[in-house]
Amino acid sequence: MDVYLPIANLSVNGLIIVLLGGATGFLSGMFGVGGGFLTTPLLIFYGIPPTVAAASAASQVTGASVSGAVYHARRKGIDYQMGAMMIAGGIVGTGIGAFLFRLLQALGQIDVAISILYVVILAGVGIKMAIEAVPELLADRFERLKRAPSKRRHHPLFTSLPGRYRFYRSGLYISPLAPMLVGMAVGTLTMLMGIGGGFLLVPLMLYGLGMSAAVVVGTSLFQILFTTIATTMMHALTTNAVDIVLAALLLLGSVSGAQIGAKFASAAKPELLRVVLAVIVLLVALFMAAGLTYRPREIFTVAPL
């Protein structure tokens, strides 16, 4: 079933795009990530221009996040106060990201910049998550690897921030500036890379802010929902790279996929989920790095209007 994408200016197999949306929706509900970190690279591999892939994937992540966030809200797995602080920072971050996107686009380097960002960030996050999660998973099988559970600690960068506020659902007493800074960083990357930011947000919430694991996934999806809405609007107003047909096809699969993923997440061990996510992140980084080393079949980019 061939479908024409007006902004990307090419025809694609609609069924493949829908299945891709279902796969990323499944990841959204299962790991608390928007799925954009996988959607954008796969769209690029399929032949979609990177700028269109990044802008359209952000709108698809919104739909996947709605479905997953509703499920976790019913289970009372969202810290709305923490999420609100992250959303405030995320909206500011989208403005910063829009400026950088237009600058790199004008310089003709946006496609390369998107690929390099994926390789560097995904590799770093994947390695960090694997180092943290693998020993915990193996400890269940090997007695000698077992250790006393460590107390959740805030990163020194966040403990030095002024002002304190109690986030009851997360079990934290930290400065509201900490989640705002996290949201700002993720918002900037969402604008540049078309990601929901969950693959980066979840580790930051766990290991940086020290949030309770019980509310990390739901709060991540809650923040991603509003940040990607702001990102899609910003792209539509500034870069004109959102392909509504492509986004609609992705949404068809992602909404149902997120519900299935959320059900799997509630039944699986958290340590196993983190190891699986780390492996997926590292594989995507490896493929993106390989893509930077060979000449593409078609050399083109989407120029600013």
TrEMBL record:
Q: Which residues cross the membrane?
A: 12-38, 44-71, 83-104, 110-131, 172-200, 206-229, 241-260, 272-294
Q: Which Pfam families match?
A: TauE
Location of the protein in the cell: Cell membrane; Membrane
Its ancestry begins with:
Bacteria, Pseudomonadati, Pseudomonadota, Alphaproteobacteria, Sphingomonadales
- Keywords per UniProt: Cell membrane, Membrane, Transmembrane, Transmembrane helix
Topology in the lipid bilayer: Multi-pass membrane protein
Top-rank taxon, per record: Bacteria
What protein is this chain from?
Answer: Probable membrane transporter protein
| Family designation | Belongs to the 4-toluene sulfonate uptake permease (TSUP) (TC 2.A.102) family.
**Keyword Lipid metabolism attributed:** no
GO CC terms on record?
Answer: plasma membrane
